[in-house]
Specification:
- The protein is mainly α and 101 residues long.
- It is built from three helices and two strands, in the order βαβαα.
- The chain has a two-stranded antiparallel sheet with strand order 1-2.
- The longest helix has 33 residues.
- It is elongated.
- Bound molecules: zinc ion (ZN).
- Zinc ion (ZN) binds next to helix 2.
- Zinc ion binds next to helix 2.
C-alpha cells in the first residue's frame, strides 16, 4: 500500500498534502511536535505527509499559543507593576481591628 499521500494525522488520502520533514521548512515538524506533544522523526513508522486541513489546524494552534503567550506576558507585567506600588492601607486595617479588641 502506497502511503505517500496519506496524512499521518487524519489518514485522509489526498494530494493536498506535503512532507512533514522538509529541510527547507523545519518549522512544520517542530510545530506539529509541539502542538501534539509527540516526537516523530523522518524514520518514525507511518505516513510522512500532513494534509492541508491538518496543517491549517496546527497553524491555528501555533497562532493561538503565540497570542496566549503574549497575553500571559502582559498579565505578568501588569501584576508586577501593581506589586511594586506601595500599599499603605494594610497597617491601617490592622490598627482598626486592634482597637475593637
Ligand atoms: Zn490530515
Amino acid at each position: 500500500m502506497d502511503t505517500d499521500f496519506i496524512c499521518r494525522f487524519c489518514l485522509s488520502f489526498t494530494q493536498l498534502s506535503f512532507p512533514i520533514f522538509l529541510e527547507s521548512d523545519p518549522d512544520t515538524a517542530r510545530d506539529i511536535m509541539n502542538c501534539l506533544q509527540i516526537k516523530i522523526t523522518k524514520d518514525s513508522i507511518g505516513p510522512i505527509f500532513i494534509c492541508n486541513n491538518c496543517y491549517d489546524q496546527v497553524h491555528n494552534w501555533v497562532m493561538f499559543k503565540k497570542n496566549s503567550d503574549e497575553v500571559l506576558q502582559n498579565i505578568h507585567t501588569i501584576i508586577n507593576s501593581v506589586k511594586k506600588k506601595p500599599v499603605s492601607t494594610t497597617n491601617e486595617v490592622i490598627d482598626l481591628l486592634d482597637e475593637e479588641d
